[in-house]
Write the structure tokens for this entry.
Amino acid sequence: MMNIPYQASSISPHDLNIDDPCLLWAQQPDADYIENIKHIGQLDPALITTQGSGKTLIAGYKRCMALKVLGRNILTLELDSTDSYTKGLIYLSSNYGRPLKPGMIIAALRYFSDLNNLDNFIWKNLDITPGSKAQELWLSWIKLPQPWDEILAKANISLECAPILLKMSKNDLSFLYQFFSTLSWSRNHSINFITWLQEKSIIEQTEIFQLKIMPQLKALLDSELSPNDKIKSIMKKLYSIRYPLMFEMLERLDSRIKEAVAGTKWRFEHKDNFESQDITITGQIKNQEDLQKAAEQLEAIAGSNTLKNWPVNINE
């Protein structure tokens, strides 16, 4: 059990070192926060310690900056001189229960990983269960080059991509970085994108950045399309190369469906890539006349040859 003695004091924020690396999630106060401190006052003390000839802040950055703006002293609890690990753990503990975003978690893990001390206290303070799948994924992530942290912090990639990325060469990681630095990928898209590229590299026995398809994907990335359309186009092109037969079948199916419902009130959807022959049929009806017309259209669709051999004849 850690029991750290402390001493209370009131000092000027200008007399504090506020640049210690243990201040993992230092955040500037906004106008509302400063106004609240101005009217209510400081309710919780900041934590400091003595380092060299000065005092160092180890928790309470936002309060400290607000009081500095207001020209007020800050109430502090001074802890005995502590090492980097203890300062970091105290900082985490002082923020216990705070909602954590991926960027905050990875910043903490990098800090303690550099100290070679990622013990269970750290994981629990980050609300990650030791031995869990989540812990395995985070341990994989911190083995990646640090520039990828910003991509994760921006939610441009799924944490679940970490084990796949770890299998890639430095050249491949460097090349793929550009696809994630400017585009925000969903979980499924990010996983499928790097998985299909990895599989294709194994098939072609070459690194990902040297795949024949990469210039085409890079051209789509550099195009004038919207971010969402870029991702859709990249995934469609990659899917057509990785699964050419399935892609051809889906293209024919899509063409057939469009032909079947053209000029009608109906919409057909087939969502499961031929795992079943089921389709979802939807229509928008305003009144009884619309309903009668839609029923006639649906009957005509059912009697046509458009969807013969549904969903698609592989031998066509």
Notes: Residues 269 and 280 are 5 Å apart (CA to CA). The chain has a mean pLDDT of 90. The chain has three domains: 6-94, 144-242, 259-303. The two ends are 73 Å apart (CA to CA).
